[in-house]
Amino acid sequence: MQVIAKIIDALPSTIHLYFQQALADYWSEADAQGNSRWQWLGEFLKGQMTAAAASRSDLTQTQRDMLSLVASSPERLKRLPGSTPATFVYFIETTLTSAAKEERLLTPDLLLVRDKQVLLYSVAGAIESFDSIEAFGEAWGTRMQRQFEFDSITWRRNEPDGDVFGQQAALILNQQLEDLGTLLAVHVP
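Predicted structure:
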């Protein structure tokens, strides 16, 4: 065991950078058709939303329509002209402030808004419905209080221009890279 400890201690303090690069290379690697794993993940996420729209009996027709529309038209500029009423899709950027420290979080979960109908669609496929954007804001604040300690919270909606599922996959990859950096920074002297 001491031999392993010595090897770990001898690792350079930048080892996490090599792991992060290997992870990025893995997700960027293309298959025989030229599609990267990152693109595959985006397509998988899109398929999950399509399946949720078709199979969830607890959703209203409007909610199913919102999900179907986003899955079939993941780019804002293509979706909005054909959507009446318009269905908007956002990522949620949350800022938590505690004393002099400020932390920003950008979730890969999607916030879908059509008129007063608001859906939170998680990467795991969970769907939560809210009667208004204000009701969502209150629920989001409560959720953050259960997960983090902070003095104040603000959040805002970020509407992506491109393919929302490709960007969702990128946020998942980015979170993996950040988690890896944090994990290794804690354990490497």
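Summary: Residues 2-187 form one domain.
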